[in-house]
Amino acid sequence: MSDGNSSVIVCSVRRERPTARLICFPHGGGAAHAFRSWPDSLPDWLEVLSVNPPGRGARLREPLVNEMGALVEALLPALLPRLDLPFVFFGHSVGALVAFETARRLE
After folding, report:
1. Parallel, antiparallel or unpaired: strands 46-51 and 20-25
2. Contact 38, 14 (CB under 8 A)
3. Are 24 and 36 in contact (CB under 8 A)?
4. DSSP assignments along 10-63, one per residue
5. 9 DSSP 8-state letter
6. How far apart are CA 18 and CA 47, in angstroms?
7. Residuewise pLDDT in 10s, the chain (107 residues)
């Protein structure tokens, strides 16, 4: 994941041949590193990707986005290329709302 969106979507453990992806959205104030150990407990066919919202994690210097629609629109360019396999969204707390709104926008 070496494109310009690599700090937006983080893959802590690359799978050789994933057949599905779990895309994780962190809690409010959280970042992608919250899910870094998850691949250790999941099967090799599942690749875990984590979202780094603006102003969090490796994107700390970027301004925060405080409007849901704008946040979803900002995440889509990084997410869309990674939806080439079956995927599921997981969100923790506010991340669940971001995941839901992202799924709605993808409809």
Report:
1. parallel
2. no
3. no
4. E-SS--SS-SEEEEEEPPTT--GGGGTTGGGGS-TTEEEEEE--TTSGGGTTSP
5. E
6. 6
7. 334 456 899 999 999 999 999 999 999 999 999 999 999 999 999 999 999 999 998 898 999 999 999 999 999 999 999 999 999 999 999 999 999 999 999 99
Active-site option among 6, 12, 37, 93: 93
Helix (H), strand (E) at residue 70: helix 68-79
Residue 77 is predicted with a pLDDT of 96
Answer yes or no: 41 catalytic: no
51 DSSP β-pair partners = 9
Which is it for strands 9-10 and 87-91: parallel, antiparallel or unpaired?
A: unpaired
Helix/strand/coil for 90: strand
| pLDDT attached to residue 5 | 56
The rounded Cα 18 to chain-centroid distance in angstroms is 16
